[in-house]
Amino acid sequence: MNTIKVSLSPSPGFCVKSIALKAAVCKLTPPLREPSSKLDGPSAVSATISIPKGVKIFVNIAWDRNVPPPPEGSEDAIQRAMTGEDEPGEHNEKGWFVPLVVSDPREDRDKAGKLSVVFDCLFHSSLKSRALKDPEFKTFLIELAFQRIEAQYAFALSRQVGTPNIKFKGELHPRIALIPAVLFPEGHPARSTTPPRTQSRPKLIEELDATVVKSTDEHLAGPSASSPVSTEARAIPELSWAKEADTVKIVLQVPDLTRSHVPAATLDLEPRRLMLDAPPLYALDLNLDLSDAQISDAAKLSDASAAQALTLKRQRDLDVDNARAEWRVGEGRLVIYA
């Protein structure tokens, strides 16, 4: 998936504070430098930052016109998103969502001089007006920011939220971010800066009927997390997903797979990772614990599949214990229920 290097000069919105419910060690992203940019916090000099349990967390909400805007949506769609009733999936391409950019954590001090940790969460400037007028929408943005921080850095934040009388904790510096191109709407100027992605597939080898082939237990055991699937000279399956009752249904398009390939194919599922190795045709290593930009670089997905992966990332962990897979050879699909 293509990413775009975007220069951000955010303006302050408001600040909220919480506490960390468990300790964490956060891996920091190497800074993307431009000659005119100032880099704040420890990310320029350190690889990790420790967050102790109980430490005060400040979350700065800021605005920038270069952050991808949310898609067009009716008021009904926006309300469904705010209440958690509407989540984009395979059968709901019009689900309304809000892109945001989350900074690395940085250390600071509270009024009492005690250690605190600060995150910046940047939203598109068009959301500022509604956030100022609509308390429920403001709460929605805060919850989105909290969920994204928790997903990106693997620790929990208390929902007992305070509102310090400041617009921003610390200093608000310009910064550079890598943003997936698919988060920008069609026709957005940022899209014109990325070259079109082409992806070749092997020719159809054999056409079979629509027999459903269910995987055995050994097909759900494959390469370990320490042995990533090699995608050299392999096609990357198109990916989509949807909720089906209490199950997450993931569909991988594998049109060239035949019955003769199934015995050699392996599928490995972890709570936040999916690995497919189907030699010599397909390979996929999708790690949902990576940042958005890292997912795009590592999985090598098409733009459409990458958009699906980013929404899947924001769902619950995969249910590995009750997972099952169906090799639908005649349909050219691998269907995973987790």
Automatic annotation (TrEMBL):
<protein>
    <recommendedName>
        <fullName>PIH1 N-terminal domain-containing protein</fullName>
    </recommendedName>
</protein>
<feature type="domain" description="PIH1 N-terminal">
    <location>
        <begin position="52"/>
        <end position="174"/>
    </location>
</feature>
<dbReference type="GO" id="GO:0005737">
    <property type="term" value="C:cytoplasm"/>
</dbReference>
<dbReference type="Pfam" id="PF08190">
    <property type="entry name" value="PIH1"/>
</dbReference>
<comment type="similarity">
    <text>Belongs to the PIH1 family.</text>
</comment>
<dbReference type="InterPro" id="IPR050734">
    <property type="entry name" value="PIH1/Kintoun_subfamily"/>
</dbReference>
<dbReference type="InterPro" id="IPR012981">
    <property type="entry name" value="PIH1_N"/>
</dbReference>
